[in-house]
Amino acid sequence: MNQTKRQELISDLLKVNGEVSSKELADELSVSMMTINRDLKELAIKKEIQLVHGGAVYRGDDSFENPISIKEEVSVQEKKRIANFCRTLVKPGSSVFIETGTTTLAVAREIFNIENCQFYTNSLLVMNALSKFEGIQLHCVPGKYRDLSKGFLGLETAEFVQQFNFDVSFIGAEGINLESGVSLPNEEDAFTKKAILKQSKKNILVADHKKFDLSYLYKVGNITDFDMIVTDLPSEDKLFQKLSNVTTIKSVRNEEKNDEN
Q1: Tell me, what's the pLDDT at 61?
Q2: I need a surface site. Which of 37, 56, 127, 224 has the fewest CB within 10 A?
Q3: What is the DSSP string of 38-91?
């Protein structure tokens, strides 16, 4: 298979699946990792895809940020494992803020039935998911609706959350970088997350491994502004080890190994 056909196939796989792993592509196409990485870099230059840790995700034709419909199909099992671990971080009777995003949505679905908790969210997806359950103390946070985030953002949201002191918040991000911090491609989204950070006693950053080593224009905060990062990034990864020197970071892959043992 020549380079053009190979890259067309990679692009098609991304459109269908939302993500690809460099190793899986190399095995499937019977080429070296070096060849695959070169193909992915060229596709990224053409603005067709976005490189992430260990592979790439579909970028879409005109959007710098992938829509929720694409994000929901990416790293589904990893997000479930992250959410399962997050359940151990919430005590009964806590006030919990759940921010927009698909990883935070997974967390919401896992922790919603913890006894006597009050849940606050600016995510329409979280509201729709949790509103199905009776007896839950669920509060919708107002703001300007952004369809790409499927949530409510901006000044109104920031002013509203200033009335509260949350016990714990679960926040997602598009980019996590040791030097440039936690970031997003949208200004209002970053502004809203900053406001929530200030109102929470404990801030948990939840992200799958594809969000690491990426950096975007609008900064939410430094790595040290978060009390913990929960991810599926392997603890053996050099980046994981560097991050562990500045903050608490938990790998759900390690938790799985411990359960097996």
Answers
A1: 45
A2: 224
A3: HHHHHHHHTTSEEEETTEEEE--SS-SS--HHHHTTSSHHHHHHHHHHHGGG--
Distance CA(255)–CA(88), nearest Å, equals 12
Region 8-30: what's the mean pLDDT? 80
Encoded tokens for 259: 């359960």
What is residue 55's predicted lDDT score, i.e. its pLDDT?
82
211/220 Cα distance (integer angstroms) = 14
Q: Tell me phi and psi for residue 53, to 5 degrees.
A: -65, 110
Q: Where are the alpha helices (DSSP H) in 91-151?
A: 102-111, 124-130
Predicted confidence band of residue 178 (pLDDT cuts 50, 70, 90) = very high
Helices 252-260, 76-86: inter-axial angle, 10-degree rounding: 80
pLDDT range class, residue 258, cuts 50, 70, 90: low
Cα–Cα nearest to 97, from 119, 130, 123:
119
CA–CA–CA angle 210, 122, 172 (5° rounding)? 15
